Amino acid sequence: MTDAERTAVEFTFAGAPVRAWSGDTVAMALWAAGHLALRRSSRDGAARGVFCSMGVCYDCLVRVDGETLRACTTLVRAGMLVEPGGKP
Amino acid sequence: MNAAADPGAGRVLDADVGVVGAGPAGLAAAGSLARAGLSVVVLDEGQRAGGQIFRQPSPRVAGCGAAPPSHRRGRGLLAAFAQSGARLCSGVTVWDARPGRLWFEQAAESWLVRCERVLLAPGAYDRSIPFPGWTLPGVVTAGALQIMGRAGVVPGKRALVAGSGPLLLPTVAALLGAGVQVVAALEASPRSSAWRALPGLLGHGGRRAEAFWYLRKLLGARVRLRSGWTLFGCEGEDRVQRALIGKVDAEGRPRRDTARSIEVDVVGAGFGLVPSIELGLLLGCRSRCDPRRGGHCLDVDGEQRTSVPTVFAAGEVCGIGGAEVAIAEGELAAAAIVKDLRGVPVPPALAVAAARERRAADRLLGCFPPLPGLCDLATADTIVCRCEDVRLEQTRAAAALHGRSLRAIKVGCRAGMGPCQGRICGPSLQALANGLPGQPADLPVVQVPVKPVRVQTVLDAPRG
Lengths: 88, 464
Ligand SMILES: Cc1cc2nc3c(=O)[nH]c(=O)nc-3n(C[C@H](O)[C@H](O)[C@H](O)COP(=O)(O)OP(=O)(O)OC[C@H]3O[C@@H](n4cnc5c(N)ncnc54)[C@H](O)[C@@H]3O)c2cc1C
Ligand code: FES
What we know:
The structure holds two protein chains of two kinds. Helices cover 8% and strands 32% of the residues of chain A. Chain A has one helix and seven strands, in the order ββαβββββ. The longest helix of chain A has 7 residues, at 26-32. Chain A is globular and about 45 Å long. In chain B, α1 (24-35) packs parallel to α9 (323-342), α5 packs across α7 and α9 (323-342) runs antiparallel to α10. The radius of gyration of chain B is 22 Å and the shape is globular. The complex binds flavin-adenine dinucleotide and FE2/S2 (inorganic) cluster.
């Protein structure tokens, strides 16, 4: 995708609006917006976020329109509802 | 088979060759194969082709897309691939394989590639070593920070890069390109390693140009790569705010008396790469262990054929070596497959070129041997397995009770049993749990699916 083909995309993370560009992964868009903590560990409650950014570690799990996905391998779509996720 | 009985009928792609990975190895191979008249399907998890080095995210900050000289080769490779007629499926996960069969998940659908030959080019991922605070948001692998830097999305102004090996340089360069201040760049190996690496760098045309490009970037920004230093730990509230750095001895053992704290917004840590051999193991391919080249890698013959006759492998999965090796091995593998299917002999020059690139890579990587003392960075309550939140003391208890093997430790404390399937903690788990720094890891335990996919994907898998 060239810069000229990129369009502004807006979605929400944990209820807050996030502005991004088409072609961004959800992880990039959230980092750019300053959201580093993407979920909490189900065991000790500590904040977790992106770690490998290439689909290997599964630390970036979020719920996108109800489905648990890796933020770093998922592209942004206008209007998507992203919520903090949890490891299965 | 009766089509009505197979819920997956219709989601099958037939091809002469199925390729896993659209990095330099997979692209070079697929382009050559398609030009030789074979039908090729390439499967890759990334949203665009190029693999870990040539995949260019759309930059958000003007200038952050500045790329080193090697990327010109990457653009050529991508263009040649696009014109070759090979078919690319991006954003898909290969989760099961048999000789001649690759099952993959695309969006919410379950698909199968049926092919005469399989080529594995799944690359490698960052080698991590646990340290206190490595689970804090904002602490990522060196590779992740490079990816984010190239896209121009680095939250904050102060970045720290730490680890070992040549890949720290592109990470620092990517951060500088994104306008971020690199407050420290720490190479754990002793300074003598960098000096020993010089002849290998300067004696190889492509690497020399690349090294100069990076060094110019670092000098221009007055960033000094400090040898014999590393990251001891990270602290912060819900995100990293401070890093503890200090000197290490020649084996990588932290010298706690030298520790000092610095303020940071993001941290990238990477201690080399680990070959992605899981699919190869699932296919029954023989592996070999080469600590200099990333540990366990797939064993191939002089024409990139694995121990399974219809399965070939190329690139980092056969041992860490960089993009030049990956391209040369991809071209060689393609020629060997063309020989198999069309009877055209393999041009001897291809094997010579691959061997030459491998020797050059060995000379460079041999200067950054694994540092067993880095195992001492983790303390008793440091999380080792990020998926299951298993702490070092728990892994030690499991090893004492159940045994020293990878399998025994996993069963004993659930380390390595989460969704990453042990890719992150596995390489250092045994050394840590057994308190034996430098202990080589057992082969990873592979399972189907080799990466987590939807249950429905497994149920709907086309038969064949
Ligand atoms: C994050 C990162 C950054 C790097 N940056 C540089 C750099 O700047 N300079 C440099 O010289 N080297 C860099 N390297 C080293 C680099 O990996 C190699 O030089 C080169 O890219 C290796 O090529 P390859 O074709 O073997 O594998 P890769 O380029 O790693 O390509 C493998 C591809 O296979 C895909 N894949 C793997 N498993 C599956 C699966 N199950 N299903 C579907 N797809 C799959 C991956 O998504 C990937 O796109 C980097 C490595 C990493 C991990
Ligand atoms: S950050 Fe590792 S899988 Fe997304």
